[in-house]
Amino acid sequence: MRNPIKLISLISFILLLTTALSGCSTGANENGTNAADNPAQTGNATQADDAGQSNEKVTLRFAWWGSEDRHKALLAAIDAYTKKNPNITIEPEYSGFDGYYQKLVTQLSGGTAPDLTPLSVDWIDDIAVKGNLVLDLYSQKQNINLDAFDPDFLNKYTVFDQKLVGLPMGVNGMVIAYNKDFFKKFGIPEDTNWDWAKIDEIGRKVHQQDPDAYLLASLDVRGFLQPYVRQQTNKQWIQDDKTLGFDQAVLTDALTYYKKLLDDGVLEPLAESSLYPDITQNTAWQKGNIGLSFGLASTLVALKSVIPNIDVTTYPIPANAKTSAVLVNPSNPLAINKASKHPEEAAKFASWLLTDPEAALILGDVYSVPPVESNSELLVQNNKIDPTVAKAVKLALAKPGDPVNGISGNQELSDLATDYLQQVGFGGITPEQAAQELMDRMTEKLKDIK
Question: What pTM value is reported for the model?
Answer without folding.
Answer: 0.76
